[in-house]
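Quiz preparation item.
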C-alpha cells in the first residue's frame, strides 16, 4: 500500500468517526432527524414503526444501540419513560448523563390534552404531561426539526449552519404541505372520525376534524363490549363515517363495528414512518392519512 493511499484511508476513517451518532426513540423521530442531519449524522431508531411506542421491551440489543451514541432524541411527555430510562441506565454511556445529550421534543411543542385534574390509576394509562403523539401534525414536525437542528449544531459546531438550513427547509415544506392538506380535507368535508387510541389527536386538531370518540374506554385499556355498544350508538347518532384504527392495535373491535354498521368505513391506518413498508418519510405518513380521510368522505 502506498503511503498516500494509507493516509487517504486514515482520513476517510477519521471523517466517518466524526459523524454525530443519534438514537431516536421512534421511527418518526428518526426520519425527522434524518431530514435535518442528512448524511452528516448517523441515525438509529429504537422502536419500529409497527410497534406500540408505549410498550417497547427494554432489550439488551437496544441497550447496545445506545452504548456510543452522542444524542438520544425522544418524543417525551412520558411516552417512552418506562423503557427508555432502563435502556439508558443499562447502556452505561457517560455522555447520556449530560443533559444536552438527551432531547425530549414533546414539551417544546405546545402539547394538547393536558389533563386538568389529578390522575389516579383508574384513569388508565394517561399521559400526564399531555399527548405525546405529535408525529401526525406537520406544523409541529417543522418546529421539532428546528429544535433538532439547534441541538445537532450545539454538539457538532462544524456543521451547524447546514443543520439549521436543512431544518428550516423542512419546516417551510411542511408549512406549505399543511396548507395543501387543509384545503384538500376541507374540500372532502369529513368532519368527524373515531380512532382506537388518541394517536390522531394532533392530526385531527390541525385539520379541524373531531376525533373525540375512541375505541379504548380509557388509554391503554382494550375495548370492552359495553364500551363498543356506546361507540356504535355515538356513530349512529352523529352519522360518523370513518373509524381509523391505528395499525399497531388489534383489529377485532373494528370487525365488530363493521358487522354492526355495514355502511361504516373501518380503516387500519399507519401512524408512523415504516408503519407500512412504503411509508419512508413523515410527509408520506401524513399524505397517506389525508388520502384515507378524503376517501372516507366520498
Ligand atoms: Zn398514547
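Solution:
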Amino acid at each position: 500500500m502506498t503511503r498516500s493511499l494509507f493516509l487517504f484511508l486514515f482520513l476517510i476513517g477519521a471523517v466517518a468517526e466524526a459523524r454525530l451518532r443519534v438514537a431516536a426513540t421512534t421511527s418518526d423521530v428518526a426520519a425527522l432527524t434524518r431530514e435535518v442531519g442528512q448524511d452528516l449524522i448517523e441515525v438509529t431508531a429504537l422502536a419500529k414503526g409497527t410497534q406500540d411506542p408505549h410498550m417497547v421491551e427494554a432489550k439488551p440489543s437496544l441497550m447496545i444501540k445506545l452504548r456510543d451514541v452522542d444524542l438520544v432524541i425522544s418524543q417525551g411527555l412520558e411516552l417512552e419513560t418506562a423503557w427508555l430510562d432502563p435502556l439508558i441506565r443499562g447502556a452505561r454511556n457517560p455522555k447520556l448523563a449530560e443533559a444536552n445529550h438527551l432531547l425530549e421534543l414533546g414539551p417544546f411543542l405546545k402539547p394538547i390534552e393536558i389533563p386538568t385534574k389529578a390522575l389516579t390509576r383508574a384513569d388508565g394509562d394517561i399521559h400526564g404531561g399531555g399527548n405525546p403523539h405529535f408525529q401526525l401534525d406537520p406544523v409541529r414536525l417543522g418546529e421539532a426539526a428546528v429544535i433538532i437542528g439547534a441541538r445537532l449544531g450545539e454538539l457538532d459546531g462544524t456543521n451547524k449552519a447546514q443543520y439549521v438550513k436543512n431544518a428550516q427547509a423542512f419546516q417551510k415544506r411542511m408549512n406549505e404541505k399543511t396548507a395543501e392538506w387543509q384545503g384538500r380535507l376541507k374540500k372532502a368535508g369529513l368532519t368527524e372520525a373515531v380512532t382506537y387510541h388518541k394517536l390522531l389527536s394532533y392530526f385531527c386538531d390541525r385539520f379541524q376534524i373531531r376525533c373525540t370518540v375512541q375505541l379504548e374506554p380509557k388509554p391503554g385499556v382494550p375495548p370492552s363490549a359495553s364500551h363498543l355498544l356506546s361507540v356504535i350508538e355515538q356513530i349512529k347518532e352523529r352519522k360518523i363515517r370513518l373509524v381509523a384504527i391505528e395499525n399497531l392495535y388489534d383489529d377485532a373491535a373494528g370487525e365488530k363495528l363493521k358487522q354492526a354498521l355495514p355502511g361504516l368505513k373501518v380503516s387500519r391506518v399507519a401512524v408512523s414512518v415504516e408503519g407500512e413498508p412504503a411509508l419512508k418519510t413523515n410527509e408520506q405518513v401524513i399524505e397517506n392519512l389525508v388520502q384515507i380521510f378524503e376517501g372516507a368522505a366520498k
